[in-house]
Amino acid sequence: MFWNLVRYEFKNVNKWYLALYAAVLFLSVLIGIQTQSLIKLPEKNLSVLLVFLSTVFGGLMVTLVISTIFLIIKRFKGSVYDRQGYLTLTLPVSEHHIITAKLIGAFIWSLISTAVLLLCVYIILLSTNSDEVQLSTLLSFVGEHFTGFSLTVLSFLLNTISGILCIYLAISIGQLFNEYRTALAVAAYIGIQIVIGIIEVFFNTSTNFYINSLAGFNDNFYMGASIGIVEELIFIAIFYLGTYYILRNKVNLQ
Question: What does the UniProt keyword field contain (predicted)?
Fold first, then answer.
């Protein structure tokens, strides 16, 4: 049943999302091709066309990010707390399975969106400066900085999971009220982010990470990345347990 829940996260997804992925990739190829030919144009025409293409591409990328966030919210709120929630919560699965299935689906969609964005940037850079961004060059760079690269990727993955669970917790907090649930969920999310920001600023200041970085300590990056990973794990545990507690004990579908 659990894997049926996971598979459901990829069913009935609006084809508009897939079309958006294709549009962003196509436009990145177009920008890369046009950049080569635009060099021969007068500077005035070149600037106007590049600004136009960049604006359209930037708009599509922003739309892709917003659409992914909207998809995460819709798939969780719609199937847990809206009308469909009655069916979801009566399935022979635990609240842990429900949250985990939603998290896996949202995490994969987030990775797909990130991969599309990175691929778009790579295509454009490859078209404009192929010598500097060859795949072999990138792989060599990763090999030389493997430890730092691995910590960065791990930190990004954990930050993505933490961000998704933070959205889930904010939505769940909003459901504790009978009115203005969406507005209160947004307020809860903002409040959580403010608290996280204060904690991180206080921690980084108290441990002199920034001072050490300016002083040139070689191990500062690894220390900071490792501590950041621990922080993300703590946030993940808090957000997950908070969502689980509300879903199990305080859920109100009225």
Answer: Membrane, Transmembrane, Transmembrane helix
Question: CA 185 → CA 14, 71, 75, 95, 96, distances in Å?
Answer: 24, 16, 15, 20, 21
Q: Which domain holds residue 251?
A: 134-254
Q: How many domains does the chain have?
A: 2
Which residues are CB-contacts of 188 (< 8 A; sequence separation ≥ 6)?
A: 169, 170, 173, 174
Non-local (6+) Cβ contacts of 159 within 8 A are 232
From 132, 161, 177, the end of a domain falls on 132
Cα dist from 116 to 29, 39, 65, 143, whole Å: 12, 27, 11, 23
Q: What is the pTM of this model?
A: 0.83
Same domain, 236 and 154: yes
> Cα separation of 52 and 123, whole Å?
18
User: What does each of the 254 residues of the chain score in pLDDT, given as a tens digit?
Assistant: 777 777 777 776 667 778 888 888 888 887 777 766 665 555 555 566 667 777 877 887 888 889 889 989 988 888 888 777 667 777 778 888 989 999 999 999 999 999 988 888 888 777 766 565 666 667 777 777 777 788 888 999 999 999 999 999 999 999 888 888 899 999 999 999 999 988 877 776 655 554 454 444 445 667 777 878 888 999 999 999 999 999 888 765 55
Q: What is the DSSP letter of 1?
A: -
Residue 247 is classified by DSSP as I
